[in-house]
Design a protein that fits this description.
alpha/beta; N-utilizing Substance Protein B Homolog, Chain A; 8-stranded mixed beta sheet; 4-stranded antiparallel beta sheet; 21 helices; S-adenosyl-L-methionine; rRNA cytosine-C5-methyltransferase
């Protein structure tokens, strides 16, 4: 008697052949794993993984959206998944949880049809983890697919009127302490909090900088860019690989958020008394601001010294600034709190201090899950020490720019206010130096605070100080 098709001797069926894992989803999954297990940064590991999978065009864009979107909305998805599993999420294998979050993102925040989101995630788990967890993944995602995002939020988020911070934390996928810190930073405009949190979850457009004397905005526009609102050197790309732009590939232009460009421009345009020949970037890594400053310095007959404490990052600064070498005094690996130069050596000093990064959550989505309030206990003293060092490095009549990519008050007003009480320090009105930037009053008079929801930039803070 003939055996049924697909049956083995003894009546056992052959297992169904495994379907190939979809490359964009596999790439996104690998990014999630690298961020979770290796401490990688999303914006750095993504291009590497995309190249590894040889993705281009729509596939590369899809992988980018899946990875970045999943990490941004992880808090929301974890709340939903917790309602769909029979155990604490901490008991779910980490590799499976990565896939569940990826599937939840497709179901709740994209136009991927539910059957495709579920089946491809099951295939992913089967191929990356094993057959055993595939059935569990299928069951959980089917439960997730029973409601849309709004319906899930009504079920899993605290009531907004009873616990506004708790609701915002789940609905906008920010830890509660971050929600509170951002609300405090908004001050009397705390009603904008929902807009700010939503902007943190929006994918940023790629912004290029045309380094003066090396590339022009017109050249970047001709390569597919669009003019921006604030920086005279900025162009936004509608899509595509920025590395394919000739000026970027040659180092004459670079990828740089418009807010970061404004920090460098603010220092370069602030008034100084007397000589204007020696500039310093005290915390130069990875080199974007240093490259723009060096290009500006070259046009004005000045030179920039770029200093970075970590030698490997100093090497990266040297590579980034190579095309602007005409305005570069050099790159040194030095601790900014223990200067390797004489006091009063520079006319202009930038201290772009290490910070929590909570103003750059659009581009560094993992920062919200890695940072804790305790980090400020280490960061704020370092920021104060670096600002003191920057002021000592500037000559009398010289100017210092203190910048952070965080709006948290402890890292902005909390660092600058004590310095303004010193008799040898006066303030330069940043709004007067950058008059084209509107609606950007900082937490202290004369300071500048950018916001993603108002300006489309990272939430950069700027204070301009002068040695008197």
């Amino acid at each position: 008697m003939a055996r049924p098709s697909g049956a083995r001797p003894g009546g056992r069926r052959k297992p169904a052949p495994r379907r190939p894992v979809d490359p964009p989803r596999a790439a996104a999954y690998d990014v999630l794993t690298a961020v979770r297990a290796d401490g990688a940064y999303t914006n750095l590991v993504l291009p590497q993984v995309v190249r590894q999978y040889r993705l281009a065009g729509r596939d590369a864009a899809f992988a980018t959206e899946l990875a970045s979107g999943t990490i941004r909305r992880q808090g929301t998805y974890d709340a939903v998944l917790a309602a769909c599993v029979d155990r604490p999420l901490a008991k779910v294998e980490a590799k499976v949880l990565d896939a569940l979050r990826l599937g939840a993102h497709q179901l709740l925040a994209t136009r991927v049809p539910p059957h495709a989101a579920i089946s491809t995630t099951v295939d992913l788990v089967r191929g990356k983890v094993g057959q055993g967890p595939a059935g569990f993944t299928n069951a959980v995602l089917r439960r997730v697919s029973e409601r849309d995002l709004d319906a899930w939020l009504r079920r899993v988020a605290p009531a907004a009127d009873a616990d506004p911070t708790g609701f915002a934390s789940v609905a906008y996928s920010h830890p509660a302490w971050v929600v509170e810190a951002l609300a405090e930073a908004l001050g009397d405009r705390a009603a904008e909090l929902d807009d700010l949190l939503a902007a943190d979850n929006a994918a940023p457009r790629v912004t290029l900088v045309a380094r003066p004397g090396l590339a022009s905005v017109a050249e970047l526009v001709a390569a597919g860019g669009e003019h921006t609102r604030w920086s005279p050197y900025a162009v936004e790309l509608a899509g595509g690989d920025p590395g394919a732009v000739d000026a970027v590939a040659a180092g004459r232009a670079g990828v740089q958020d418009e807010g970061s460009q404004l920090m460098a421009i603010g220092l370069a345009d602030a008034p100084v008394e007397g000589d204007d020949r020696r500039w310093l970037d005290l915390c130069a890594g990875p080199g974007g601001k240093a490259a723009l400053l060096a290009a500006l310095a070259a046009e004005r007959g000045a030179g920039l010294l770029a200093s970075e404490r970590q030698p490997h990052r100093a090497t990266l600064v040297a590579r980034t600034t190579a095309s602007a070498s005409a305005g570069l005094i050099g790159v040194v690996a030095a601790d900014g709190t223990r200067p390797a130069w004489r006091e009063g050596s520079f006319d202009r000093v930038l201290v772009d201090a290490p910070c929590s990064g909570l103003g750059a959550l659009r581009r560094r989505p993992e920062a919200r899950w890695r940072r804790t309030p305790a980090d400020l206990d280490d960061l704020v003293p370092l920021q104060r020490a670096l600002l003191d060092s920057a002021l000592a490095s500037a000559r009398p009549g010289g100017v210092v720019a203190y910048a952070t990519c965080s709006p948290v008050l402890a890292e902005t007003a909390g660092v600058v206010a004590p310095v303004l009480a010193r008799p040898d320090v006066t303030q330069v009105d940043a709004a007067a130096v950058l008059p084209e930037v509107t609606d950007a009053a900082g937490p202290l008079p004369g300071t500048l605070q950018l916001w993603p929801h108002r300006h489309g930039t990272d939430a950069m803070f700027l204070a301009l100080l002068k040695r008197s």
